[in-house]
Amino acid sequence: MIRKVTIGDAGRICDIYNYYVENTAVSFETDAVCIKDMEQRIQDFISGGYPYFVYEINNIVVGYCYLHAWSGRCAYRTSVEISIYIDKDYLNKQIGSVMMDHLLNKIDLSRFHTIIAGIALPNEASIALHEKYGFKNISHFKEIGNKFAEWRDLGHWQLILEDRVKVLILCTGNSCRSQMAHGFLQSFDKGMKVCSAGTDAAGKLNAGAVKAMKEVGIDISGHTSDSVEKYLDQDWDYVITVCGGANEVCPAFTGNVKHRIHIGFDDPSHATGSPDFIESEFRRVRDEIKSGFFEFYIKEIKKQVLPECSCGRGC
């Protein structure tokens, strides 16, 4: 799960970070950071209003990510730098992608314009993570640092936030269909800003939706169930409603949006019957959502034509 950092996380963050300080050139710091100093750093970021999150497994912090000022000079005030660190024993588990998803979707676009990532080179894993989310290489400094008696290169990758396509998916409770759609659409293109919300947010995700998505390799357990009010002051390229059925009233969005689209689906949380039948309903709707949003992504975002099916059934 992902949650906001607290001062009490400083010890685990030191454990994670100091491994990289003492054993790698990933960080250009050369001395381990003590807990007291880390507490002060965390407090400074929180006081500055910068987003800072930790990733937990079994109540143990195994990763963290945050934004901080790129420079103290006033003209740089809308530019921030991103940092992501994962416990060395939890690498290659997609934790970095989950944290990046969460962090990018929590950014205040009225405050921040661009994100910079400084990457000590070589670091193919970090480059791949950032480029997956649309960061582009903008600099390569040669032999700019010296650590472990070797010259080190440093590269910078940049993401201009306003360049991203922004999609908001709406339903009533923001616990099931909109969350599955959110997960699928973000999986198609990490460079997009995808959010979901509800007019009467449930406050938590439907366990059946989380399970169904996990079966196809998409973890939405870190998502939050949010009220549409949170997003009314933002500009959106697309707002998509996913309500379906004659008994549902689709939510209305009163904010600024270029395109309004409806892609309706049954609500599997209303299914009744045996546990096996209910699970099958979640899977059916999940698969329909994947198909519907992939079609939207190809036609509307990529501006491509879907290939015709060769099955001969006219589907």
- The appropriate CATH architecture of the largest domain is 3-Layer(aba) Sandwich
Sheet of most strands: 7 strands, mixed
Spatial strand sequence of the major β-sheet: 1-2-3-4-5-7-6
Number of helices: 7
CATH superfamily of the largest domain: Gcn5-related N-acetyltransferase (GNAT)
Number of strands: 11
CATH level-3 fold name of the largest domain = Aminopeptidase
Structural domain count: 2
Helix content: 25-40%
Shape: globular
Q: Into which percentage range does the β-strand content fall?
A: 25-35%
Helix and strand element order: EHHEEEHEHEEEHEHEEH
* Uncertain parts: none
| CATH class placement of the largest domain | Alpha Beta
Gyration radius (Cα, Å) is: 21 Å
Mean pLDDT: 91
The structure class reads: alpha/beta
Distinctive features:
315 residues, alpha/beta, Aminopeptidase, Rossmann fold, 2 domains, seven-stranded mixed sheet, four-stranded parallel sheet, 7 helices, 30% helix
Please, could you describe this protein's structure?
By secondary structure, this protein is of the alpha/beta class. It contains 7 helices and 11 strands. The strands form 2 sheets. The protein has a 7-stranded mixed β-sheet with strand order 1-2-3-4-5-7-6, sandwiched between helices. The longest helix has 27 residues, at 275-301.
List the helices and strands and how they pair.
Blueprint: E1 2-4, H1 10-23, H2 35-47, E2 52-57, E3 60-69, E4 79-86, H3 95-105, E5 114-121, H4 124-132, E6 136-147, E7 150-160, E8 166-171, H5 177-188, E9 193-198, H6 207-215, E10 236-241, E11 257-262, H7 275-301
Parallel strand pairs: 4-5, 8-9, 8-10, 10-11
Antiparallel strand pairs: 1-2, 2-3, 3-4, 5-7, 6-7
